Amino acid sequence: MTDTSDSPDAKQPGPGLWLSLIVSGFGLIAACAGMWVAYNTVLEIATVSPFELPGSETRDLGEGEYELYVRTGSAFDFDQNELTSLPSLDEVRVTNQATGELIPVERLVLLEPTIRGTNRYEALASFEVVTAGTYVVEVASDGPANRAIFGRSFETGLDDAVPWLITLLVGSLVFMLGTTLLIIGLVRRKRFRDSTVFPQRPWQPPTFPSSVRQPPAPTPRIDSETPWDD
User: Measured between alpha carbons, how far is 163 from 26 in angstroms, rounded to an integer?
Assistant: First the structure.
C-alpha cells in the first residue's frame, strides 16, 4: 500500500498551517504592541525620565491634564519633615513654545507619594493642555528637591489609551483564533495520516456458507403428568 499523505498532490484536511501561524503571529504582535503602549500611556508617570532641578524639559503634549512631581527623598525614608522641601507654585512655569502662552498651574495634593526605584516623588502641581503642541515645563527651584517628573494624569492616560486597549483586545482574540486553527489543523492532519497508513474497513456482520445450517433450537419438554397425580 502506498502512502499518499505526504505527496504534493494530496489534499490536506483542516486549516492551512502557514495561514494559522501568520494569523497567530499577527495577533500576538498586535496584542503586545497594544499592551506596551497602553501601559506607557496610562502609567506615564512611572515610565518618563526625570529632569534635574533647577531646570526645564520640552516635550510634545496632547490635550488633557498633566501632573508634576518632585523628588523629596529616598523611598525608604519616611521623614515627614521632607514635605516642607517642596517648591512653591511661583517656581513652576509651563509655556506653550509656539505662542509663548503661560499655562495656569494649580497645586496638586495626593495622599500617597509615587515611588520610582529608590526615590520618592511627591505631587506638586497640575496643569491642563487645551491645545496639543510643544510645551516647556520649568521648575526654578534650587532647594533640596533636585529632580522632577511630569506626565499624563491617570484619567487622561486612560482616555488616550482606549485605542490601544482595543488593539490589545482584538490582537488577543486574533491570536487565540490562529492558535485554535493551528491545533485543529495539526489534529486533522494526524488523523488523516493515520487513516491513510492504517486504513479501517467498515464493520460487516459475519456470514455463513449456505451448506452450513444452524441446528434447530431445543424445545422445552413438558410432562403430561404432574407430581401430585395418583
Answer: 17
Global pTM value: 0.65
Q: Which SS3 state, helix, strand or coil, does residue 60 take?
A: strand
- Secondary structure tally for the chain: helices H, strands E: 3, 10
Hey, what's the cell of 127?
496643569
Phi/psi at 61 (5° precision): -120, 140
Positions of E strands within the chain: 51-52, 55-61, 64-74, 92-96, 102-103, 106-107, 114-116, 119-129, 133-139, 147-152
Q: For the chain, how far is it from start to end, CA to CA, in angstroms?
A: 78
Q: pLDDT digit of tens for each residue in the chain (230 aa)?
A: 444 444 444 556 667 888 889 999 999 999 999 999 998 888 888 888 899 989 999 999 999 999 999 988 877 765 554 544 678 899 999 999 999 999 999 998 876 778 888 888 888 999 999 999 999 999 998 766 688 999 998 888 888 899 999 999 999 999 999 999 888 888 888 777 766 666 666 666 666 565 555 566 666 666 555 555 55
- CA distances, 83 to each of 68, 86, 109, 187 (Å): 15, 6, 12, 64
Per this entry, what is the length of the chain?
230
Contact between 30 and 171 (Cβ < 8 Å): yes
